[in-house]
Description:
single chain, mainly alpha, 77% helix
Amino acid sequence: xxxxxxxxxxxxxxxxxxxxxxxxxxxxxxxxxxxxxxxxxxxxxxxxxxxxxxxxxxxxxxxxxxxxxxxxxxxxxxx
Length: 79
């Protein structure tokens, strides 16, 4: 939905922030959950699924923060 929102409002350049946050989060949590590093249990494929869900949430959260920052900036500068 966030991709559709940004593409539909012609702000697809902000997708980079969400995609980057997703990729970094997914790499870290995949390594952690699949192989059991950083004190987490070794979960295998279930760990990959969990890491993907966490990464999607992180991407959504980053896009939400970008959206709020841009909205706040437009509200302040519009007077």
